[in-house]
DNA sequence: CGCAAGATTGAAGGACATCAAAGGGCGTGG
DNA sequence: CCACGCCCTTTGATGTCCTTCAATCTTGCG
């Protein structure tokens, strides 16, 4: 990956938008680039983060191991997303573990350096505030859904979000852009893989989706949106 | 309420901590103070906020009306908390309605003014970033709980949070500092008032709490924490 | 005292979780 | 290249937690 490519990554990152070119160069110079394989843990739940990480390429899952052995997936991140940002910005311990799902390209900055950059280039802090605020609003939305909606509805919402966030155009619809098992979906919506299997099968019969092994294509977005909002 | 009192409010507010005295005066001068009665709506779900609001005194409930008629309570705010902060900082529409539970004293700043103050006093923006980050982490935690835990466990967690946040010392324990019905708790944890009633009654029998009409006192914090973490 | 709002309690039903077992893809190694 | 084995998926049966409905009881207040 060339320096120009990395600069392109930065340029499109929500944190560094509207940054003057000279400043961008400095951020670039201060960054550390690394590639890591799938199923590698970047941050561990409970740790104090030592660096701020931006995802250049690949998919990262942010999840919690909870008492009783259950695991909850908090977020599925794609290119451009920040990892552990709230912990770094708030100087807080991490509440979740971040693990790569696919091979990934990461950009990182040591915590002190991150704060230093924000101090020197106020636009970055402005962007950070906007990013975290947006993130918080999404969490509010999901909390409301979790509190009031049924499993089928929540599955619909999750798939729509995944499609919008990391979806790929496919023949006959939008495909979720990474291997996604029934278990994975279950951990996102807070249920078990059996319920997910039944729901997806039902939707397949009705022609809303095409579901394969580790693979889901949304065919009829309208109908899925209908399920997401109306519940049936 | 005297000017000195208001300044005291600001001084303790998470957004204006570590602010030089002169700057604090300016913030104070730019602020608008108002008192509003209980059960008044401050922000409406879906609106674009016109001002940033800090809660000086009283209790405010932040809640969503959801399709199907269900309502979910996102947050119960007490003195010092910000209302609609993420929407203002992220220039986003509000995802929830904010309604006063008790009579309240509010401090507010027009949106443009808020951004202007942050621009001129970078410490405020730094504080804002920390505040929103902390808020986001709490939401992550609650999302994980909602996804994996049973109702009784979630009730325990809610009561502990309420006690820590707006609890008052009472004879025999900590009392939740405002009128709180079974229905209110149900909307916080995502269930119905009947389940809440049964659980609270059970806890009363076991001596963990004292539950009255619109009134709850936590007697045995240890045991409630145990329920919150272990599930029984 | 009587009313209204909150709280309790029982019964019945439904959505979901759990357990068990069998049926496919897909990669790997013989 | 085929067969084996692993992992993902499906499907049924069963149990339970929770929701819903209905009715009664309590409490505080006008």
Separation of termini of chain A?
47 Å
Radius of gyration of chain A: 19 Å
Strand content of chain A: 15-25%
- The stretches of 5 or more residues of chain A where confidence is low (pLDDT under 50) are none
Share of helix among residues of chain A? 40-55%
Question: How many individual domains of chain A?
Answer: 2
* CATH homologous superfamily title of the largest domain in chain A: Jelly Rolls
Would you state the CATH class of the largest domain in chain A? Mainly Beta
The total of helices of chain A stands at 9
Overall pLDDT of chain A: 96
Order of helices and strands of chain A: HHEEEEEEHEEHHHEEHHEEH
Question: Major β-sheet of chain A, in short?
Answer: 4 strands, antiparallel
- Write down the CATH topology of the largest domain in chain A: Jelly Rolls
Strand order of the main beta sheet of chain A, please? 1-8-3-6
Q: What class would the helix/strand composition of chain A place it in?
A: alpha+beta
Quaternary state of the chains: homodimer
Overall strand count of chain A = 12
Which second-level CATH architecture of the largest domain in chain A applies? Sandwich
Shape of chain A: globular
At a glance:
Chains A, B: It comes from Teichococcus wenyumeiae. With 232 residues, chain A is an alpha+beta fold.
How does the SSE layout of this entry go?
Two copies of one chain form a homodimer.
Chain A: H1 3-12, H2 21-30, E1 32-36, E2 41-43, E3 51-57, E4 60-65, E5 71-77, E6 82-83, H3 85-90, E7 97-100, E8 104-110, H4 111-120, H5 122-148, H6 151-166, E9 167-170, E10 173-176, H7 182-189, H8 193-205, E11 209-212, E12 215-218, H9 221-230
Antiparallel strand pairs in A: 1-8, 2-7, 3-6, 3-8, 4-5, 4-7, 9-10, 10-12, 11-12
Helix pairs in contact in A: 1-2, 4-5, 6-7, 6-9, 7-8
Chain B binds a DNA duplex (30 and 30 nucleotides) through residues 150-151, 181-183, 191-195, 197-198, 200-201, 211-214.
């Amino acid at each position: 990956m060339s320096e120009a490519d990395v600069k392109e990554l930065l340029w499109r990152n929500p944190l560094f938008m509207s940054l003057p070119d000279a400043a961008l160069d400095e951020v670039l110079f201060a960054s550390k680039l690394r590639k890591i394989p799938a199923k590698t843990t970047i941050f561990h739940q409970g740790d104090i983060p030592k660096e701020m990480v931006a995802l250049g390429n690949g998919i990262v899952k942010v999840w919690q191991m909870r008492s009783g052995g259950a695991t909850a997936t908090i977020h599925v991140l794609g290119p451009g997303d920040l990892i552990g940002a709230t912990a770094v910005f708030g100087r807080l311990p991490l509440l979740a573990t971040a693990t790569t799902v696919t091979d990934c390209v990461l950009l990182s900055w040591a915590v002190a350096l991150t704060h230093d950059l924000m101090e020197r280039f106020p636009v970055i802090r402005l962007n950070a505030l906007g990013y975290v605020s947006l993130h918080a609003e999404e969490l509010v939305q999901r909390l409301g859904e979790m509190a009031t909606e049924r499993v089928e509805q929540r599955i619909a919402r999750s798939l729509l979000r995944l499609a919008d966030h990391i979806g790929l155009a496919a023949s006959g619809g939008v495909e979720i852009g990474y291997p996604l098992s029934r278990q994975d979906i279950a951990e996102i919506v807070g249920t078990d893989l059996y319920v997910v299997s039944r729901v997806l099968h039902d939707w397949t019969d009705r022609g809303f989706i095409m579901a394969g092994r580790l693979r889901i294509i949304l065919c009829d977005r309208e109908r899925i949106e209908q399920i997401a909002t109306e519940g049936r």
